[in-house]
Specification:
heterodimer, A: about 575 residues, alpha+beta, Methanol Dehydrogenase, Chain A, Thrombin, subunit H, 5-stranded mixed β-sheet, 4-stranded antiparallel β-sheet, about 25% helix, B: about 425 residues, 2 domains, two-stranded antiparallel sheet, 2 strands, about 65% helix, globular
Chain lengths: ~575, ~425
């Protein structure tokens, strides 16, 4: 009896100990848990960079970029906010360890207490507690059948779902069309196809760099030497030719007509000529246009399936390669003293239209991204700039694709997919006409007659102070865009000063005065620089650290447009004619 | 009411992985501070020898588990071993490598896709199956960390009605089929992606993963091992082999005295009672039902197989290549605006989309075949279950269901015969000690 009593007492004592431990660890865990929950809610809701005060101070800094005291205040606040956040994280981490320890002890002690208090089984007489009879089997069969039906319904609903997926029919993968116009099943060109063509102003990315080096270096327009063909362009225009496979496109316009021309690359024959007027849209009142820009200054662009043309009136039209109008848009007459001249740019299925106008205060400037197939606006971004004559470039940076624009007073880069502003650099003054260029992760923006700014493109926000690699202020162009191979940057002023800067440090390496006027921007062909004067003389200069004139070639007709380069050929637009140069 | 605090804790657990949620980094300051960003370092790979240690521990644990279940019949021993397994395979090895997930590696490896299945994964897949072939589900008993963590929190098991047990039990078969389809097509390891306990083992994970794990643990307070019984695909394989295992778990050491004391001892509903004496009434109807379901079996297989082929394209979207191909195609045909990270990354490679499209179509075809096989599997499982439910089996004593019993040993102490055995054993040992 004594032994039994002792055993019972001992068991009771163990049970009490386990129970007390369970209660203590339970309370401990509950307290830690409550603290953790509070901390977790605070952590979840806390975003150090969402501080109103910080945002406000940053906005002030944009207006007062030189205010050192303000910068220090922002730095301190930023540090405080980040430290607060990490303190909360540390607390959460330590608390989790304590909570888990408490929970483990609680579970073990409560389980042990439960084992010590286990009740003995007392089966009731008669029917067992878990009967399995014919009726139960019958019910179960129905439930299993029900599950089968439910699953079948699920499968059918998926099977009947409208197919958005790729199918052999939708792709027609195996059937290459053989025309050389449609590059893949979806129609969007591959990067290789993109590069080997000249789809927009100054080529594939708008950089003025030729993918081919086997292009002519000598010709004579007067004798016809080196001229494969010459074709008259019906209406005038300052825009440059674009090339896609076996076709060359141009636009021309006067006060009443706006047209697009498609030339056969092999012969110069006009394959089709189409009017860009939208008969349904209201036409703008007559307006003055500067002869320096004309009614058709913006260079066309193509996505490999359609061509797009923009005119000074704000009329925008898309045609397929057979000349059939795909869509039109009237963006409205832009407020532009010289006339709108920003060229179009394309990336995949988006057409970019830089539509800057008026003054900064007018807030009318914007960058539009239109669906190339339908012309519908995919996104648009308001721009804090005034009238502008530069063209956007779409380049691949190490941080992804960027649309880089230059205007007064900001050079701004955008995400082409969503239109979000990525970075901006300020103090770009003057009547901005030279378009930006890009090489080896650095964009080059020109403030006409003032300075050239080299900007690293991996920044975010206002990077005026942090990502400006160097600036230069000698022989800065006023109309012509710069060109670079990354190592060297070449500038050309309209009065004929050619200057070479070191791409990394911005050191001037050489300058040369050609004593002729230029409107056309320089182009880079391998290790040669092609400079086309207003009088139609092409200066071919070594793209090197020292100036060396390699040759000259005369066209014999005035030229304002930039050349387009193709395999073994150059397409030049003169004042009246389109030329194809080659062997 | 003692389990209320546990429920509360488990419900609040999802709020805890603050450290995991905090892994969403914000950008560094957008001004120069002089602070140098630390270099990103890649952790060293685990020492390869430790892979063999894992296999060695697994083999040892399986052997010990079989000994404790079959020979020693020790519930305490099994519980202690399962705690060890939870600590080692669960928290120390963070649930990886795991026998459940190994199904996917093996499926992918068998498809000849050029994927080499590591030795340890093969061992984790085969060893528990091999032991199941001899000793039943001794892996589930004390070696599987998933089972152990559910076992630990089990406080007041409720009896799941038979019809529900059998119906929900089919989900594990369907899950197994789906896991094999997704793994064999190289699309996804869904068992790992939706593993409910991995976030708890690793003390980190997405909010959804932690919540899923906590939900399972909350259910496990009242329903014994819900994941093992109704979802575990590896349990399906172990159950199938256990049906034909050489040795089986018995509630009693020698013979069943039908005292009914063990009737409610199993929290997993794996104890089957003796059947009543058969009666001639309804036997013909029973036979007809059986024949009907046997005839229905090929029909079910064919119908589900046909439907499986139909869902192939939908399933194919789980494949990353198909998804990116579809996106690129939609962008290229103007059906989608802008780009995604995946489509941008693809375009950055400079590869022609045609190649991507062809690959996507090839994967799509594989999914149609795999979908058909998956459907056939589901039809087979449902058909066989209906047949099994129409077969009358005779039992003369209380038995542990060979497929359902996870060999936890909870029923042992309920058997009076077991107490007799232990007493006799103690006496023998005492005598031996004296001599």
């Amino acid at each position: 009896m004594n032994t039994m009593d002792t055993t019972t007492t001992s068991s009771q004592a163990t049970y009490q100990t386990a129970l007390r431990t369970a209660v203590m660890t339970g309370v401990f865990s509950a307290v830690v848990c409550a603290l953790l929950v509070v901390n977790s809610y605070r952590s979840l809701a806390y975003d150090p960079l969402a501080s109103r005060e910080l945002k406000k101070l940053k906005a002030t800094l944009v207006r007062q970029p030189e205010e050192e005291a303000l910068k220090n205040r922002i730095r301190k606040l930023d540090l405080d906010l980040r430290q607060k956040y990490f303190r909360q994280r540390e607390l959460s981490s330590r608390g989790t360890d304590l909570f888990l320890l408490g929970t483990i002890l609680f579970v073990l002690s409560s389980q042990y207490a439960a084992v010590l208090r286990k009740r003995l089984p007392l089966p009731k007489p008669g029917r067992t507690s878990n009967p399995w009879d014919a009726r139960t089997a019958w019910i179960t069969r129905w439930w299993v059948g029900g599950l089968g039906v439910a699953f079948a319904a699920l499968l059918i609903s998926y099977a009947l779902k409208p197919q958005r997926a790729l199918t052999r029919e939708s792709l027609k993968v195996a059937s290459a069309d053989g025309t050389g116009q449609s590059q893949n099943a979806g129609g969007v060109p591959t990067p290789e196809e993109w590069k080997k063509n000249w789809p927009s102003f100054r080529g594939a990315e708008g950089l003025g760099v030729s993918a081919f080096t086997d292009v002519p270096t000598s010709w004579d327009g007067a004798t016809g030497k080196g001229v494969l063909w010459k074709a008259p362009v019906p209406l005038p225009g300052m825009n440059s030719p674009i090339v896609w496979n076996d076709r060359v496109f141009l636009s021309g316009a006067n006060e009443t007509q706006h047209e697009v021309y498609c030339f056969e690359a092999k012969t110069g024959r006009v394959l089709w000529r189409a009017s860009a007027e939208d008969r349904g849209a209201s036409q703008p009142q007559s307006f003055d246009i500067s002869p320096e820009t004309s009614y058709a200054a913006p260079t066309m662009a193509t996505d490999g399936q359609r061509v797009f043309a923009l005119f000074a009136t704000g009329a925008l039209a898309a045609f397929d390669f057979e000349g059939k109008k795909a869509w039109t848009q009237n963006l409205g007459l832009p407020q532009n003293s010289y006339g709108h001249s920003s060229s179009l740019a394309v990336s995949r299925n988006l057409l970019f239209v830089l539509f800057d106008q008026g003054s900064i205060e007018d807030k009318k400037s914007k960058l539009l991204a239109l669906d190339t197939e339908t012309g519908k606006t995919v996104w648009q971004q308001k721009r804090p700039v005034g009238s502008n004559w530069t063209s956007p470039i779409v380049v691949e940076t190490e941080k992804g694709q960027q649309v880089i624009t230059v205007a007064n007073p900001w050079a701004i880069a955008y995400d082409p997919a969503k239109g979000e502003e990525l970075w901006r650099v300020g103090e770009i003054g003057g009547e901005t006409a030279p378009s930006p260029t890009f090489a080896k992760g650095v964009a080059f923006a020109v403030a006409p007659g003032e300075k050239l700014v080299a900007i690293r493109t991996d920044g975010r926000g206002d990077v005026s102070k942090t990502k400006t690699v160097w600036t230069a202020d000698q022989n800065i162009p006023d109309i012509c865009s710069p060109v670079s191979n990354g190592d060297l940057v070449f500038l050309l002023t309209s009065s004929g000063a050619v200057t070479c800067y070191d791409g990394e440090e911005g050191k001037k390496l050489w300058e040369q005065y050609l004593d002729v006027n230029f409107r056309s921007s320089p182009s880079l062909v391998g290790d040669k620089l092609y400079l086309l004067s207003e009088e139609g003389v092409m200066f071919i200069v070594a793209a090197d650290k020292q100036y060396k004139l390699l040759g000259k070639a005369k066209l014999g007709e005035q030229c304002y447009a930039c050349p387009a380069f193709a395999e073994g050929r150059i397409y030049l637009r003169g004042k009246q004619n389109l030329y194809c140069l080659g062997k | 009411m003692r389990f209320v605090p546990v429920v509360a804790f488990l419900l609040l657990l999802p709020l805890l992985p603050g450290s995991a949620l905090a892994s969403e980094r914000f950008p560094p300051p957008d001004f120069e501070t002089g602070y140098k960003q630390p270099q990103t370092i890649t952790p060293h790979a685990r020492w390869p020898v430790l892979e063999y240690l894992d296999v060695f521990v697994l083999a040892g644990a399986l052997g010990l588990s079989a000994y404790l279940v079959m020979k020693k019949r020790s519930r305490r021993g099994i519980a202690a071993l399962s705690i060890f397994s939870l600590a080692y395979f669960g928290f120390y090895r963070q649930g990886c490598v795991c026998a459940i997930g190994s199904i996917q590696n093996v499926a992918l490896g068998l498809m000849g896709s050029g994927y080499h299945v590591p030795f340890s994964v093969v061992a984790f897949f085969l060893l528990p199956l091999l032991f199941a072939l001899f000793f039943g589900r001794t892996f589930c008993a004390a070696v599987c960390p998933h089972g152990a963590i559910q076992d630990v929190v089990l406080l007041r098991p409720l009896r799941v009605p038979g019809w529900l047990e059998h119906t929900l039990g089919l989900l594990a078969y369907i899950y197994l089929g789906a896991a094999v389809v997704f793994a064999a097509t190289g699309s996804a390891f869904i068992l790992c992606e939706y593993d409910p306990f991995i976030a708890l083992f690793r003390l980190t994970g997405s909010f959804e993963m932690v919540t899923l794990g906590v939900c399972f643990l909350v259910i496990a307070l009242f329903v014994g091992r819900p994941y093992c019984r109704f979802l575990c695909p590896y349990g399906v394989l172990l159950g199938l082999l256990s049906r034909v295992s050489k040795y089986r778990v018995t509630i009693y050491p020698d013979k069943c005295i039908k005292c009914r004391l063990c009737e409610d001892s199993c929290p997993y509903g794996a104890i089957r009672e003796p059947t009543p004496e058969p009666v001639a009434v309804g036997r013909a109807a029973g036979r007809k039902t059986l024949l009907l379901f046997m005839a229905l079996l090929p029909v079910l297989i064919a119908i589900f197989s046909w439907m499986g082929v139909g869902i192939g394209p939908s399933l194919a979207r789980s494949n990353a290549t198909v998804r990116v191909a579809e996106r690129v195609w939609r962008e290229d045909t103007g059906k989608a605006s802008g780009t995604t990270k995946a489509s941008s990354a693809f375009r950055y490679t400079g590869q022609p989309p045609q190649k991507l499209y062809k690959e996507a179509l090839q994967i799509g075809r594989r999914f149609r075949t795999a979908g058909g096989l998956f459907g056939a599997w589901v039809g087979l499982v449902i058909g066989l279950k209906l047949i099994a439910l129409s077969v009358k089996r005779r039992r003369f004593e209380y038995e542990a269901d060979r497929a359902a019993c996870v060999a936890c040993g909870r029923c042992y102490p309920y058997c009076p015969e077991e107490h007799v055995r232990l007493k006799a054993l103690a006496e023998i040992m005492a005598k031996e000690a004296v001599t």
